[in-house]
Write a structure and sequence with these properties.
Layout: E1 6-7, H1 13-21, E2 31-35, H2 37-45, E3 50-56, H3 63-71, E4 76-79, H4 81-87, E5 96-101, H5 108-112, E6 118-122, H6 127-139, E7 144-148, H7 158-164, E8 173-176, H8 178-187, E9 191-195, E10 201-202, H9 203-206, E11 213-218, H10 226-231, E12 234-237, H11 249-259, H12 261-268
Helix pairs in contact: 6-7, 6-11
Length: 269
């Protein structure tokens, strides 16, 4: 295995960079901390630019990550374990972590350039759900996600990165207002279909529509906003046993996109 340099001085600029990037009060987020081997590898493969990747000298550095960093010219160093303990005091300590430059915010044009269905989340605020939706949307061929009223101000949010396992940089995730989102969908010629109980169509019928769609999911408590409901072409429901009140929004999305899988994967090719 390649011999890696070890940071032993707490005053090393890299240590200060990590301290700065983990401050919750930052007003301008230009760099972000990516944690754990799998998210790091996903982000590097997606083309995210890394300043440096680190590991603790008390833990073997993952060889597959080291090999990937080498292929992408990403610098790697170890940090003395006592410094790592101070950096992440009270937090779970990842085996590997890195400082990356935050990519430019995704735009509607990034979604428009792709051919899969568009996922619209209206008022979905639980970061764990959003992260799961990112992974599922990528796996099942969606072209992008529009987040409305999510309370997330940047996709570089550490909670979202953790919940998505680093996939949040692998497809366009646009933060938008309701009016802007509706205008984009209408200008693109897409029909917007709302997932709700007692819908006009069954989820099986959703899978038979050949056109590109915008699939709207509201919050579990309140559902989609009135503005989105008025702009929606139809509603779609998922059959459930009578004893079940509702499905988790990420589960509902997975079911809907699975019905659309053949259309979206063909469009992606």
């Amino acid at each position: 295995m390649t011999e890696l340099d070890t940071i032993t001085n707490p005053s090393d600029p890299a240590v200060q960079r990590i301290i700065d990037v983990t401050k919750p009060s930052r007003s301008s987020i230009k760099t972000t901390l990516i944690e754990d081997t799998e998210p790091l590898m996903h982000c590097i493969t997606a083309g995210v630019e890394f300043i440096e990747v680190y590991g603790s000298d008390g833990t073997p550095f993952p060889p597959e990550l080291l090999e990937l960093c080498g292929r992408h010219d990403v610098p790697v160093r170890l940090i003395d374990s006592s410094i790592v303990n101070r950096l992440f005091k009270g937090e779970r300590k990842a085996k590997a972590f890195g400082i990356a430059r935050v990519p430019r915010p995704a735009r509607f044009s990034d979604i428009e350039s792709r051919n899969g269905d568009v996922v619209v989340l209206d008022g979905v605020k639980i970061v764990g759900n959003i992260g799961a939706i990112v992974r599922t949307s990528l796996a099942l061929g969606a072209s992008g996600i529009i987040l409305v009223d999510s309370d997330i101000t940047s996709i570089a949010d550490r909670r979202l990165q953790r919940a998505s396992r680093g996939y949040v940089f692998s497809l366009p995730v646009v933060l938008s207002g309701r009016e802007e989102a509706i205008a984009f969908i209408q200008d693109s010629g897409m029909r917007m279909m709302t997932l709700s109980a007692g819908g006009d169509l069954s989820v099986k019928e959703l899978g038979e529509i050949p056109d590109r769609l915008a699939l709207l999911f509201g919050s579990e408590k309140g559902g989609p906003s009135e503005l989105f409901e008025k702009a929606s072409s139809a509603s779609v429901s998922i059959p459930m046993a009578g004893t079940t009140e509702s499905l988790n929004v990420s589960v509902s999305l997975g079911i809907a996109l699975h019905e659309r899988i053949h259309r979206n994967l063909a469009a992606g090719r």
